[in-house]
Write a structure and sequence with these properties.
five-stranded mixed β-sheet, alpha+beta
Length: about 140
């Protein structure tokens, strides 16, 4: 997979971030199985818990357009470090993504990035199949 286009879109999405309180801008670009890319940025709020992360913004945009299958996401921030998704974002990704196949690209810039699977970032995630109402037979 060529990551440069996804990274470029995440960096561009970061420019739209609304972060007047923390000045911590984050952009994300989510690649669907159908090949579409959905971007997101973080959006803060004076009531801090009401904000939304870039990763969830991208996922929610994609889901609202009917997408349910995802291949990869890039996360880029202003810190100059690899920026992994927060716990809530990891859980949202776990709802839709195969933990062993979905790639999370932590990008400092287009030439410096790290690729991980969702399973590496969130081992033993609570997933939809955990809600199975049938009891396991022993």
């Amino acid at each position: 997979m060529v990551y440069q286009e996804l990274i470029a879109q995440a960096v561009k999405a970061k420019e739209s971030a609304y972060a007047p309180y923390s000045n911590f801008r984050v952009g994300a670009a989510l690649l669907t199985e159908s090949g579409k890319i959905y971007t997101g940025c973080n959006v803060e709020n004076a009531s801090f818990p009401a904000g939304n992360c870039a990763e969830r913004t991208a996922v929610f945009k994609a889901v609202s357009e009917g997408e349910r299958e995802f291949k990869a996401i890039v996360v880029n921030g202003d810190t100059g470090r690899y920026l992994p998704p927060c716990g809530i974002c990891r859980q949202v990704l776990a709802e839709f993504c195969d933990p062993d196949a979905f790639q999370v690209i932590l990008a400092k810039d287009q030439s410096d990035y790290r690729v991980m699977t969702l399973g590496e970032l969130l081992p033993e995630a609570f997933r939809p199949e955990n809600l199975n109402q049938e009891k396991d037979k022993k």
